[in-house]
Design brief:
- 2 copies of one chain form a homodimer.
- Chain A is α/β, with parallel strands linked by helices.
- Chain A has a single domain, classed as 3-Layer(aba) Sandwich (Rossmann fold), CATH 3.40.50.1820.
- Chain A has 9 helices and 9 strands.
- Chain A has an 8-stranded mixed sheet with strand order 2-3-5-4-6-7-8-9, sandwiched between helices.
- The longest helix of chain A is centred in the N-terminal third of the chain and has 23 residues.
- The first copy, chain A, is globular.
- At the A-B interface, α1, β1, β2, α2 and α9 of A face α1, β1, β2, α2 and α9 of B.
- β1 of chain A pairs antiparallel with β1 of chain B, so a sheet runs across the interface.
Amino acid sequence: MFFKFIKLAFCCCYFFSVPLSAKESTEFKIRNTDTLQIKSEVSGLEYELYIRLPNDYSENNKKYPLVLLNDTGYSVAVASGIVHLMAGRDIEDVIIVGISYSKGHNPLLSRTRDYTPTYAPNEKRGHSLEVQKYSGKASQYIRFISDEVLPLVSQTYRIRQDKKVFVGHSYGGLLGAKILITNPELFDYYILGSPSFWYDNKAMFRLESDYAKSNKSMKAKVFMYIGSQEGSMVEQMLAFENQLKSRNYQGLSVRSKVLSGLTHHSAFAVLLTDGLQQAVPKQGKGS
Amino acid sequence: MFFKFIKLAFCCCYFFSVPLSAKESTEFKIRNTDTLQIKSEVSGLEYELYIRLPNDYSENNKKYPLVLLNDTGYSVAVASGIVHLMAGRDIEDVIIVGISYSKGHNPLLSRTRDYTPTYAPNEKRGHSLEVQKYSGKASQYIRFISDEVLPLVSQTYRIRQDKKVFVGHSYGGLLGAKILITNPELFDYYILGSPSFWYDNKAMFRLESDYAKSNKSMKAKVFMYIGSQEGSMVEQMLAFENQLKSRNYQGLSVRSKVLSGLTHHSAFAVLLTDGLQQAVPKQGKGS
Protein backbone atom coordinates (compact mmCIF):
# COMPACT_ATOMS: atom_id res chain seq x y z
CA MET A 1 0.00 0.00 0.00
CA PHE A 2 2.81 2.34 0.86
CA PHE A 3 4.53 1.73 -2.46
CA LYS A 4 1.30 2.09 -4.34
CA PHE A 5 0.75 5.42 -2.68
CA ILE A 6 4.26 6.58 -3.54
CA LYS A 7 3.70 5.60 -7.13
CA LEU A 8 0.44 7.54 -7.30
CA ALA A 9 2.07 10.47 -5.58
CA PHE A 10 4.82 10.51 -8.19
CA CYS A 11 2.20 10.48 -10.93
CA CYS A 12 0.62 13.49 -9.29
CA CYS A 13 3.95 15.20 -8.96
CA TYR A 14 4.56 14.61 -12.62
CA PHE A 15 1.10 15.88 -13.49
CA PHE A 16 1.36 19.02 -11.40
CA SER A 17 4.99 19.90 -11.73
CA VAL A 18 5.73 19.37 -15.39
CA PRO A 19 3.37 22.02 -16.78
CA LEU A 20 4.93 24.48 -14.31
CA SER A 21 8.43 23.61 -15.49
CA ALA A 22 7.36 23.68 -19.11
CA LYS A 23 5.88 27.14 -18.65
CA GLU A 24 9.04 28.41 -16.98
CA SER A 25 11.24 26.98 -19.66
CA THR A 26 9.67 29.09 -22.39
CA GLU A 27 11.52 32.26 -21.38
CA PHE A 28 14.96 32.82 -22.84
CA LYS A 29 17.62 32.07 -20.25
CA ILE A 30 21.16 33.36 -20.43
CA ARG A 31 23.69 30.56 -19.98
CA ASN A 32 26.07 30.45 -17.01
CA THR A 33 23.89 32.75 -14.94
CA ASP A 34 22.62 32.47 -11.40
CA THR A 35 20.51 34.62 -9.08
CA LEU A 36 21.25 35.42 -5.44
CA GLN A 37 18.67 36.94 -3.10
CA ILE A 38 19.88 39.71 -0.82
CA LYS A 39 18.12 41.84 1.77
CA SER A 40 19.98 45.02 2.65
CA GLU A 41 20.61 45.55 6.34
CA VAL A 42 21.35 49.18 5.55
CA SER A 43 17.96 49.95 3.99
CA GLY A 44 15.76 46.91 4.66
CA LEU A 45 15.16 46.66 0.90
CA GLU A 46 15.35 43.39 -1.01
CA TYR A 47 17.26 42.94 -4.25
CA GLU A 48 18.39 40.19 -6.56
CA LEU A 49 21.96 39.79 -7.76
CA TYR A 50 22.33 38.35 -11.26
CA ILE A 51 25.64 36.59 -11.75
CA ARG A 52 27.20 35.49 -15.03
CA LEU A 53 30.23 33.24 -14.68
CA PRO A 54 32.90 32.50 -17.30
CA ASN A 55 32.28 29.36 -19.39
CA ASP A 56 35.25 27.56 -17.83
CA TYR A 57 34.69 28.82 -14.26
CA SER A 58 34.17 25.37 -12.76
CA GLU A 59 37.14 23.88 -14.60
CA ASN A 60 39.86 25.88 -12.85
CA ASN A 61 40.68 27.84 -9.71
CA LYS A 62 41.45 31.19 -11.32
CA LYS A 63 40.17 34.48 -9.97
CA TYR A 64 38.37 36.78 -12.36
CA PRO A 65 37.77 40.54 -12.65
CA LEU A 66 34.36 41.68 -11.44
CA VAL A 67 32.06 43.81 -13.61
CA LEU A 68 29.27 45.36 -11.55
CA LEU A 69 26.15 46.53 -13.38
CA ASN A 70 23.02 48.40 -12.38
CA ASP A 71 19.86 48.96 -14.46
CA THR A 72 19.71 45.22 -15.04
CA GLY A 73 16.58 45.48 -17.21
CA TYR A 74 18.93 45.78 -20.18
CA SER A 75 22.50 45.78 -18.90
CA VAL A 76 22.86 42.09 -17.97
CA ALA A 77 21.66 40.95 -21.40
CA VAL A 78 23.92 43.32 -23.36
CA ALA A 79 26.96 42.63 -21.16
CA SER A 80 26.44 38.85 -21.21
CA GLY A 81 26.37 38.76 -25.01
CA ILE A 82 29.33 41.10 -25.41
CA VAL A 83 31.42 39.19 -22.87
CA HIS A 84 30.47 35.86 -24.48
CA LEU A 85 31.94 37.13 -27.76
CA MET A 86 34.94 39.10 -26.50
CA ALA A 87 36.18 37.11 -23.48
CA GLY A 88 39.50 35.42 -24.12
CA ARG A 89 39.83 37.28 -27.42
CA ASP A 90 39.64 41.03 -26.82
CA ILE A 91 39.20 41.10 -23.04
CA GLU A 92 39.87 38.96 -20.01
CA ASP A 93 36.97 36.78 -18.96
CA VAL A 94 35.03 38.37 -16.11
CA ILE A 95 32.36 37.69 -13.53
CA ILE A 96 29.33 39.88 -14.19
CA VAL A 97 27.23 40.95 -11.19
CA GLY A 98 24.03 42.89 -11.82
CA ILE A 99 22.03 44.47 -8.99
CA SER A 100 18.29 44.42 -9.67
CA TYR A 101 15.90 47.22 -8.86
CA SER A 102 14.52 46.78 -5.35
CA LYS A 103 11.89 44.06 -5.28
CA GLY A 104 8.30 45.17 -5.27
CA HIS A 105 9.03 48.71 -6.41
CA ASN A 106 8.61 50.64 -9.63
CA PRO A 107 11.99 50.49 -11.42
CA LEU A 108 11.88 54.25 -12.06
CA LEU A 109 11.35 54.90 -8.35
CA SER A 110 14.07 52.39 -7.43
CA ARG A 111 16.72 53.93 -9.72
CA THR A 112 15.77 57.48 -8.73
CA ARG A 113 16.08 56.59 -5.04
CA ASP A 114 19.27 54.53 -5.31
CA TYR A 115 21.30 56.22 -8.05
CA THR A 116 20.82 59.96 -7.38
CA PRO A 117 23.19 61.77 -5.00
CA THR A 118 20.86 64.48 -3.66
CA TYR A 119 17.26 64.91 -2.58
CA ALA A 120 15.71 67.04 -5.33
CA PRO A 121 11.90 66.92 -5.11
CA ASN A 122 11.54 69.65 -7.75
CA GLU A 123 13.86 68.17 -10.41
CA LYS A 124 11.64 68.20 -13.50
CA ARG A 125 14.08 66.41 -15.81
CA GLY A 126 13.84 63.18 -13.79
CA HIS A 127 11.31 60.42 -14.44
CA SER A 128 8.50 62.27 -12.62
CA LEU A 129 7.96 64.55 -9.64
CA GLU A 130 6.22 61.62 -7.98
CA VAL A 131 9.39 59.49 -7.91
CA GLN A 132 11.60 62.51 -7.17
CA LYS A 133 10.06 62.44 -3.68
CA TYR A 134 12.22 59.36 -3.06
CA SER A 135 15.42 60.77 -4.58
CA GLY A 136 18.87 61.20 -3.09
CA LYS A 137 19.66 57.88 -1.41
CA ALA A 138 22.85 57.08 -3.36
CA SER A 139 24.99 57.18 -0.18
CA GLN A 140 22.82 54.48 1.39
CA TYR A 141 22.95 52.42 -1.83
CA ILE A 142 26.75 52.76 -1.99
CA ARG A 143 27.00 51.41 1.58
CA PHE A 144 24.80 48.51 0.46
CA ILE A 145 27.24 47.82 -2.40
CA SER A 146 30.38 48.16 -0.26
CA ASP A 147 29.20 46.46 2.94
CA GLU A 148 26.83 43.83 1.61
CA VAL A 149 26.94 43.17 -2.15
CA LEU A 150 30.72 43.07 -2.66
CA PRO A 151 31.38 40.98 0.49
CA LEU A 152 28.67 38.48 -0.52
CA VAL A 153 29.89 38.01 -4.08
CA SER A 154 33.53 37.94 -2.94
CA GLN A 155 32.71 35.15 -0.49
CA THR A 156 30.68 33.25 -3.08
CA TYR A 157 32.87 33.59 -6.19
CA ARG A 158 36.57 33.84 -7.02
CA ILE A 159 36.96 37.57 -7.65
CA ARG A 160 40.17 39.51 -8.28
CA GLN A 161 40.04 42.29 -5.71
CA ASP A 162 42.41 44.43 -7.80
CA LYS A 163 40.17 44.40 -10.88
CA LYS A 164 36.72 45.50 -9.88
CA VAL A 165 34.91 47.40 -12.64
CA PHE A 166 31.86 49.61 -12.10
CA VAL A 167 29.56 50.19 -15.07
CA GLY A 168 26.78 52.76 -14.99
CA HIS A 169 24.74 54.50 -17.65
CA SER A 170 22.65 57.66 -17.33
CA TYR A 171 21.61 57.85 -13.64
CA GLY A 172 23.95 54.87 -13.24
CA GLY A 173 26.80 57.06 -14.51
CA LEU A 174 25.84 59.69 -11.96
CA LEU A 175 25.95 56.99 -9.28
CA GLY A 176 29.45 56.02 -10.44
CA ALA A 177 30.59 59.65 -10.06
CA LYS A 178 29.09 59.69 -6.56
CA ILE A 179 31.07 56.54 -5.67
CA LEU A 180 34.23 58.30 -6.91
CA ILE A 181 33.77 61.11 -4.40
CA THR A 182 32.59 58.84 -1.59
CA ASN A 183 34.82 55.78 -1.70
CA PRO A 184 36.87 55.87 -4.92
CA GLU A 185 38.80 52.71 -4.10
CA LEU A 186 35.61 50.65 -3.98
CA PHE A 187 36.27 49.92 -7.67
CA ASP A 188 39.45 50.02 -9.71
CA TYR A 189 37.81 51.03 -13.00
CA TYR A 190 34.75 53.16 -13.68
CA ILE A 191 32.90 53.01 -17.00
CA LEU A 192 30.50 55.96 -16.87
CA GLY A 193 28.15 56.21 -19.83
CA SER A 194 26.08 59.29 -20.64
CA PRO A 195 26.14 60.43 -16.99
CA SER A 196 23.22 62.63 -15.87
CA PHE A 197 25.42 65.52 -14.71
CA TRP A 198 22.49 67.91 -15.26
CA TYR A 199 20.81 66.39 -12.19
CA ASP A 200 19.75 68.85 -9.46
CA ASN A 201 21.38 71.92 -10.98
CA LYS A 202 24.59 70.00 -11.62
CA ALA A 203 24.89 68.88 -8.01
CA MET A 204 27.78 66.53 -8.81
CA PHE A 205 30.06 69.48 -9.66
CA ARG A 206 29.41 70.96 -6.19
CA LEU A 207 29.83 67.60 -4.44
CA GLU A 208 33.13 67.03 -6.22
CA SER A 209 34.32 70.49 -5.12
CA ASP A 210 33.52 69.58 -1.52
CA TYR A 211 35.53 66.36 -1.90
CA ALA A 212 38.47 68.30 -3.37
CA LYS A 213 38.65 70.57 -0.30
CA SER A 214 39.72 67.70 1.94
CA ASN A 215 41.17 65.08 -0.41
CA LYS A 216 44.32 65.00 -2.49
CA SER A 217 43.92 61.53 -3.96
CA MET A 218 41.32 59.62 -5.97
CA LYS A 219 42.73 56.25 -6.82
CA ALA A 220 40.70 55.13 -9.84
CA LYS A 221 40.77 54.73 -13.60
CA VAL A 222 37.76 56.44 -15.13
CA PHE A 223 36.43 56.08 -18.67
CA MET A 224 33.59 58.41 -19.56
CA TYR A 225 31.46 58.24 -22.70
CA ILE A 226 28.65 60.21 -24.24
CA GLY A 227 26.81 60.14 -27.56
CA SER A 228 27.44 63.15 -29.79
CA GLN A 229 23.65 63.54 -30.12
CA GLU A 230 23.10 64.13 -26.39
CA GLY A 231 22.98 67.93 -26.59
CA SER A 232 24.17 69.85 -23.54
CA MET A 233 25.10 66.60 -21.77
CA VAL A 234 28.18 66.42 -24.03
CA GLU A 235 29.70 69.63 -22.71
CA GLN A 236 28.64 68.76 -19.15
CA MET A 237 30.57 65.50 -19.31
CA LEU A 238 33.63 67.24 -20.74
CA ALA A 239 33.36 69.90 -18.03
CA PHE A 240 33.26 67.23 -15.31
CA GLU A 241 36.31 65.55 -16.87
CA ASN A 242 38.12 68.90 -16.84
CA GLN A 243 37.12 69.59 -13.24
CA LEU A 244 38.48 66.18 -12.16
CA LYS A 245 41.72 66.71 -14.09
CA SER A 246 42.20 70.22 -12.67
CA ARG A 247 42.55 68.74 -9.16
CA ASN A 248 45.62 66.68 -10.04
CA TYR A 249 44.35 63.97 -7.72
CA GLN A 250 46.96 61.39 -6.85
CA GLY A 251 46.16 58.06 -8.50
CA LEU A 252 43.43 59.30 -10.82
CA SER A 253 43.37 58.62 -14.55
CA VAL A 254 40.44 59.99 -16.57
CA ARG A 255 39.71 59.58 -20.25
CA SER A 256 36.58 60.38 -22.23
CA LYS A 257 35.12 59.78 -25.68
CA VAL A 258 32.29 61.48 -27.52
CA LEU A 259 30.71 58.72 -29.62
CA SER A 260 29.92 60.01 -33.09
CA GLY A 261 26.30 59.85 -34.20
CA LEU A 262 25.03 58.11 -31.07
CA THR A 263 22.19 59.10 -28.76
CA HIS A 264 21.54 58.55 -25.06
CA HIS A 265 20.09 55.10 -25.69
CA SER A 266 22.11 53.90 -28.68
CA ALA A 267 25.41 54.69 -26.92
CA PHE A 268 25.26 51.95 -24.27
CA ALA A 269 26.32 48.83 -26.18
CA VAL A 270 29.04 50.80 -27.95
CA LEU A 271 30.51 52.32 -24.79
CA LEU A 272 30.37 49.01 -22.94
CA THR A 273 32.30 47.36 -25.80
CA ASP A 274 34.97 50.06 -25.63
CA GLY A 275 35.00 50.41 -21.85
CA LEU A 276 35.64 46.71 -21.26
CA GLN A 277 38.52 46.83 -23.75
CA GLN A 278 40.00 49.72 -21.78
CA ALA A 279 39.44 48.24 -18.32
CA VAL A 280 40.13 44.53 -18.77
CA PRO A 281 42.03 44.09 -22.07
CA LYS A 282 43.19 40.59 -22.77
CA GLN A 283 46.67 40.21 -21.36
CA GLY A 284 49.16 40.99 -24.07
CA LYS A 285 46.84 43.61 -25.56
CA GLY A 286 47.63 47.20 -24.57
CA SER A 287 45.04 49.15 -22.61
CA MET B 1 -9.70 8.67 2.25
CA PHE B 2 -9.67 10.12 -1.24
CA PHE B 3 -9.27 13.67 0.09
CA LYS B 4 -6.59 12.56 2.48
CA PHE B 5 -4.71 10.99 -0.40
CA ILE B 6 -5.03 14.14 -2.49
CA LYS B 7 -3.70 16.17 0.38
CA LEU B 8 -0.71 13.88 0.81
CA ALA B 9 -0.14 13.86 -2.91
CA PHE B 10 -0.09 17.65 -2.93
CA CYS B 11 2.47 17.60 -0.13
CA CYS B 12 4.60 15.31 -2.21
CA CYS B 13 4.15 17.53 -5.24
CA TYR B 14 5.26 20.48 -3.20
CA PHE B 15 8.22 18.56 -1.87
CA PHE B 16 9.33 17.30 -5.26
CA SER B 17 8.41 20.16 -7.54
CA VAL B 18 9.47 23.25 -5.62
CA PRO B 19 13.19 22.51 -5.55
CA LEU B 20 12.99 21.93 -9.31
CA SER B 21 11.26 25.28 -9.85
CA ALA B 22 13.60 27.04 -7.45
CA LYS B 23 16.58 25.65 -9.32
CA GLU B 24 15.19 26.75 -12.66
CA SER B 25 14.40 30.21 -11.42
CA THR B 26 18.03 30.96 -10.62
CA GLU B 27 19.02 31.51 -14.26
CA PHE B 28 18.68 35.02 -15.64
CA LYS B 29 15.63 35.26 -17.88
CA ILE B 30 15.13 37.94 -20.49
CA ARG B 31 11.73 39.59 -20.15
CA ASN B 32 9.08 39.35 -22.86
CA THR B 33 10.64 36.25 -24.37
CA ASP B 34 9.17 32.94 -25.38
CA THR B 35 10.47 29.73 -26.95
CA LEU B 36 8.85 27.78 -29.77
CA GLN B 37 9.89 24.25 -30.69
CA ILE B 38 10.21 23.47 -34.39
CA LYS B 39 11.20 20.35 -36.29
CA SER B 40 12.27 20.99 -39.85
CA GLU B 41 10.46 18.94 -42.47
CA VAL B 42 13.23 19.86 -44.90
CA SER B 43 16.09 18.41 -42.83
CA GLY B 44 14.47 16.45 -39.99
CA LEU B 45 16.49 18.57 -37.56
CA GLU B 46 15.00 20.13 -34.44
CA TYR B 47 15.51 23.75 -33.43
CA GLU B 48 14.19 26.26 -30.94
CA LEU B 49 12.96 29.70 -31.89
CA TYR B 50 13.55 32.40 -29.28
CA ILE B 51 11.05 35.22 -29.53
CA ARG B 52 11.27 38.64 -27.89
CA LEU B 53 8.10 40.71 -28.12
CA PRO B 54 7.75 44.49 -27.64
CA ASN B 55 6.80 45.58 -24.10
CA ASP B 56 3.37 46.77 -25.25
CA TYR B 57 2.69 43.89 -27.66
CA SER B 58 -0.40 42.64 -25.84
CA GLU B 59 -1.84 46.12 -25.42
CA ASN B 60 -2.46 46.85 -29.09
CA ASN B 61 -3.01 45.25 -32.47
CA LYS B 62 -0.05 46.76 -34.30
CA LYS B 63 2.22 44.79 -36.58
CA TYR B 64 5.96 44.99 -35.93
CA PRO B 65 9.11 44.60 -38.03
CA LEU B 66 10.82 41.24 -37.66
CA VAL B 67 14.52 40.93 -36.77
CA LEU B 68 15.82 37.42 -37.47
CA LEU B 69 18.99 36.31 -35.69
CA ASN B 70 21.21 33.26 -35.84
CA ASP B 71 24.08 32.32 -33.50
CA THR B 72 21.70 32.74 -30.59
CA GLY B 73 24.36 31.90 -28.00
CA TYR B 74 25.11 35.63 -27.87
CA SER B 75 22.88 37.40 -30.39
CA VAL B 76 19.53 37.17 -28.57
CA ALA B 77 21.00 38.66 -25.38
CA VAL B 78 22.76 41.55 -27.12
CA ALA B 79 19.79 42.32 -29.38
CA SER B 80 17.26 42.13 -26.54
CA GLY B 81 19.19 44.66 -24.45
CA ILE B 82 19.83 47.01 -27.36
CA VAL B 83 16.20 46.90 -28.48
CA HIS B 84 15.00 47.43 -24.88
CA LEU B 85 16.98 50.68 -24.80
CA MET B 86 16.48 51.95 -28.35
CA ALA B 87 12.91 50.90 -29.21
CA GLY B 88 10.54 53.84 -29.47
CA ARG B 89 13.49 56.23 -29.16
CA ASP B 90 16.01 55.54 -31.91
CA ILE B 91 14.29 52.66 -33.70
CA GLU B 92 10.85 51.18 -34.20
CA ASP B 93 9.98 48.44 -31.77
CA VAL B 94 10.51 45.02 -33.32
CA ILE B 95 9.85 41.34 -32.83
CA ILE B 96 13.13 39.47 -32.40
CA VAL B 97 13.27 35.85 -33.61
CA GLY B 98 16.43 33.85 -32.94
CA ILE B 99 16.99 30.39 -34.45
CA SER B 100 18.96 28.12 -32.12
CA TYR B 101 21.63 25.69 -33.19
CA SER B 102 20.10 22.32 -34.03
CA LYS B 103 19.20 20.45 -30.87
CA GLY B 104 21.59 17.75 -29.76
CA HIS B 105 24.47 18.93 -31.94
CA ASN B 106 27.74 20.72 -31.35
CA PRO B 107 27.07 24.42 -32.05
CA LEU B 108 30.22 24.62 -34.20
CA LEU B 109 29.01 21.71 -36.31
CA SER B 110 25.51 23.18 -36.49
CA ARG B 111 26.66 26.61 -37.71
CA THR B 112 29.18 25.10 -40.14
CA ARG B 113 26.48 22.87 -41.63
CA ASP B 114 23.71 25.47 -41.77
CA TYR B 115 25.48 28.77 -42.51
CA THR B 116 28.08 27.80 -45.15
CA PRO B 117 27.15 27.86 -48.86
CA THR B 118 29.46 25.13 -50.17
CA TYR B 119 30.81 21.74 -49.18
CA ALA B 120 34.46 22.38 -48.38
CA PRO B 121 35.92 19.44 -46.42
CA ASN B 122 39.46 20.84 -46.70
CA GLU B 123 38.72 24.41 -45.50
CA LYS B 124 41.32 24.86 -42.77
CA ARG B 125 40.14 28.29 -41.60
CA GLY B 126 36.81 26.88 -40.36
CA HIS B 127 36.23 25.56 -36.83
CA SER B 128 37.89 22.19 -37.59
CA LEU B 129 38.26 19.70 -40.40
CA GLU B 130 35.99 17.41 -38.39
CA VAL B 131 33.01 19.77 -38.62
CA GLN B 132 33.88 20.78 -42.21
CA LYS B 133 32.69 17.28 -43.19
CA TYR B 134 29.16 18.57 -42.54
CA SER B 135 29.59 21.90 -44.36
CA GLY B 136 27.63 23.40 -47.21
CA LYS B 137 23.97 22.99 -46.27
CA ALA B 138 22.99 26.67 -46.36
CA SER B 139 20.49 26.09 -49.20
CA GLN B 140 18.64 23.55 -47.07
CA TYR B 141 18.72 25.91 -44.06
CA ILE B 142 17.40 28.80 -46.17
CA ARG B 143 14.47 26.62 -47.25
CA PHE B 144 13.86 25.87 -43.56
CA ILE B 145 13.76 29.64 -42.87
CA SER B 146 11.53 30.47 -45.84
CA ASP B 147 9.15 27.51 -45.76
CA GLU B 148 8.93 26.78 -42.05
CA VAL B 149 10.35 29.44 -39.69
CA LEU B 150 8.88 32.55 -41.30
CA PRO B 151 5.43 30.99 -41.89
CA LEU B 152 5.30 29.78 -38.26
CA VAL B 153 6.27 33.12 -36.70
CA SER B 154 4.03 35.01 -39.15
CA GLN B 155 1.07 32.87 -38.12
CA THR B 156 1.89 33.20 -34.42
CA TYR B 157 2.81 36.90 -34.16
CA ARG B 158 1.81 40.18 -35.82
CA ILE B 159 4.70 40.74 -38.21
CA ARG B 160 5.05 43.45 -40.86
CA GLN B 161 5.81 41.50 -44.01
CA ASP B 162 7.43 44.58 -45.60
CA LYS B 163 9.99 45.02 -42.81
CA LYS B 164 11.79 41.76 -42.28
CA VAL B 165 15.40 42.21 -41.19
CA PHE B 166 18.08 39.53 -41.39
CA VAL B 167 21.06 39.82 -39.03
CA GLY B 168 24.12 37.63 -39.39
CA HIS B 169 27.67 37.85 -38.10
CA SER B 170 30.76 35.96 -39.35
CA TYR B 171 29.42 32.71 -40.87
CA GLY B 172 26.00 34.26 -40.27
CA GLY B 173 27.03 37.13 -42.56
CA LEU B 174 28.06 34.60 -45.18
CA LEU B 175 24.63 32.98 -44.80
CA GLY B 176 22.99 36.38 -45.35
CA ALA B 177 24.96 36.82 -48.60
CA LYS B 178 23.84 33.35 -49.68
CA ILE B 179 20.20 34.31 -49.04
CA LEU B 180 20.75 37.41 -51.20
CA ILE B 181 21.71 35.26 -54.21
CA THR B 182 19.11 32.58 -53.51
CA ASN B 183 15.94 34.40 -52.54
CA PRO B 184 16.78 38.11 -51.98
CA GLU B 185 13.19 39.09 -51.28
CA LEU B 186 13.00 36.73 -48.29
CA PHE B 187 14.10 39.74 -46.21
CA ASP B 188 13.83 43.46 -46.86
CA TYR B 189 16.99 44.43 -44.96
CA TYR B 190 20.24 42.57 -44.46
CA ILE B 191 22.66 43.47 -41.67
CA LEU B 192 25.81 41.50 -42.48
CA GLY B 193 28.56 41.76 -39.89
CA SER B 194 32.15 40.65 -40.48
CA PRO B 195 31.08 38.18 -43.20
CA SER B 196 33.39 35.21 -43.76
CA PHE B 197 33.96 35.92 -47.46
CA TRP B 198 37.28 34.04 -47.27
CA TYR B 199 35.30 30.79 -46.99
CA ASP B 200 36.17 28.06 -49.52
CA ASN B 201 38.51 30.18 -51.65
CA LYS B 202 36.02 33.04 -51.68
CA ALA B 203 33.20 30.86 -52.97
CA MET B 204 30.61 33.62 -52.45
CA PHE B 205 32.21 35.76 -55.17
CA ARG B 206 31.79 32.87 -57.68
CA LEU B 207 28.24 32.13 -56.53
CA GLU B 208 27.29 35.78 -56.92
CA SER B 209 28.74 35.78 -60.44
CA ASP B 210 26.56 32.79 -61.30
CA TYR B 211 23.51 34.65 -59.96
CA ALA B 212 24.40 37.73 -62.03
CA LYS B 213 24.40 35.70 -65.26
CA SER B 214 20.68 35.08 -65.07
CA ASN B 215 19.33 37.85 -62.80
CA LYS B 216 18.96 41.57 -63.29
CA SER B 217 17.36 42.40 -59.97
CA MET B 218 18.14 41.93 -56.29
CA LYS B 219 15.48 43.67 -54.26
CA ALA B 220 17.11 44.26 -50.89
CA LYS B 221 18.73 46.89 -48.69
CA VAL B 222 22.09 45.62 -47.49
CA PHE B 223 24.24 47.06 -44.69
CA MET B 224 27.66 45.48 -44.33
CA TYR B 225 30.10 46.06 -41.48
CA ILE B 226 33.57 44.95 -40.54
CA GLY B 227 36.04 45.85 -37.80
CA SER B 228 39.13 47.70 -39.01
CA GLN B 229 41.24 45.12 -37.14
CA GLU B 230 39.99 42.18 -39.19
CA GLY B 231 42.94 42.07 -41.59
CA SER B 232 42.26 40.81 -45.12
CA MET B 233 38.54 40.42 -44.33
CA VAL B 234 38.22 44.22 -44.63
CA GLU B 235 39.24 44.32 -48.28
CA GLN B 236 37.22 41.17 -49.00
CA MET B 237 34.06 42.82 -47.70
CA LEU B 238 34.74 45.97 -49.72
CA ALA B 239 35.43 43.81 -52.80
CA PHE B 240 32.09 42.02 -52.37
CA GLU B 241 30.34 45.37 -52.01
CA ASN B 242 31.99 46.56 -55.22
CA GLN B 243 31.06 43.35 -57.05
CA LEU B 244 27.40 43.77 -56.01
CA LYS B 245 27.37 47.43 -57.04
CA SER B 246 29.01 46.68 -60.41
CA ARG B 247 25.95 44.61 -61.43
CA ASN B 248 23.55 47.56 -61.17
CA TYR B 249 20.91 45.16 -59.88
CA GLN B 250 17.43 46.60 -59.95
CA GLY B 251 16.18 47.26 -56.42
CA LEU B 252 19.49 46.78 -54.61
CA SER B 253 20.93 49.26 -52.17
CA VAL B 254 24.29 48.44 -50.52
CA ARG B 255 26.20 50.41 -47.93
CA SER B 256 29.16 49.42 -45.82
CA LYS B 257 31.16 50.68 -42.87
CA VAL B 258 34.61 49.80 -41.58
CA LEU B 259 34.36 50.17 -37.79
CA SER B 260 37.44 51.89 -36.44
CA GLY B 261 39.50 49.98 -33.88
CA LEU B 262 37.15 46.99 -33.68
CA THR B 263 37.91 43.30 -34.08
CA HIS B 264 35.88 40.34 -35.31
CA HIS B 265 34.31 39.85 -31.89
CA SER B 266 34.09 43.40 -30.57
CA ALA B 267 32.31 44.59 -33.72
CA PHE B 268 29.00 42.81 -33.18
CA ALA B 269 27.22 45.00 -30.62
CA VAL B 270 28.40 48.13 -32.44
CA LEU B 271 27.23 47.00 -35.88
CA LEU B 272 23.91 45.78 -34.53
CA THR B 273 23.32 49.20 -32.93
CA ASP B 274 24.07 50.94 -36.23
CA GLY B 275 22.36 48.39 -38.44
CA LEU B 276 19.05 48.61 -36.60
CA GLN B 277 19.17 52.41 -36.87
CA GLN B 278 19.64 52.04 -40.62
CA ALA B 279 16.99 49.35 -41.15
CA VAL B 280 14.20 50.32 -38.75
CA PRO B 281 14.76 53.96 -37.71
CA LYS B 282 12.05 55.44 -35.58
CA GLN B 283 9.51 57.08 -37.85
CA GLY B 284 10.42 60.70 -38.23
CA LYS B 285 14.13 59.89 -38.05
CA GLY B 286 15.87 59.65 -41.40
CA SER B 287 17.38 56.34 -42.47
